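Today's session is about reading a structure prediction critically. Students often jump straight to the picture, but the first step is always the sequence itself: look for stretches that repeat, for charged clusters, for runs of hydrophobic residues. Only then move on to the predicted structure, which in these notes is written as discrete structure tokens rather than atom positions. Here is the chain we will use throughout the hour.
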Amino acid sequence: MIRFAGMELEVQIVRYVDDHFPGWVECEFFDAENNRHSFVEKAPVVSDQWFGPNDSYPQNGSIRCEILESWHDVGCRELVRVTTERPDCVEIKEGKSEFVVLSSQVVFAEATIVELEKKAPEYEERSKTEPDRIATALRHRAKQCRESIAALRNGHWR
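Below is the predicted structure for this chain, in token form.
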């Protein structure tokens, strides 16, 4: 079995569900057979953005996953079987955590590092102009970005 860590499955954040800290959102994605899968998760697990009930949806997001297998089907589509159980224990509403999706729906670690390298300084800069509670959260988010970058570079995904 081939295992690749440091991957993210792209999802659409379709609505804000609950204000309970840190905010909960409903997300969805379509598998390779065009079946819709939906789950509710903490907003920071699926995005680096802050969401609220008055934001417009859908928004782009992603969930960390692990690729278990890859192959080409009879139509020459590149498919991957992923699990969202690792590393964050994300399951769809029906309790399922393994899916076959198009490989184009999975973002690889290198792209994640580049994105995180852009976001960490942005969070630090924004923290200088925000009220204390938000500034603390932004500094924490910048620290998480830097920890994730280090983990990815060392071949680990927290």
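Discussion point for the tutorial: The longest strand covers residues 4-18.
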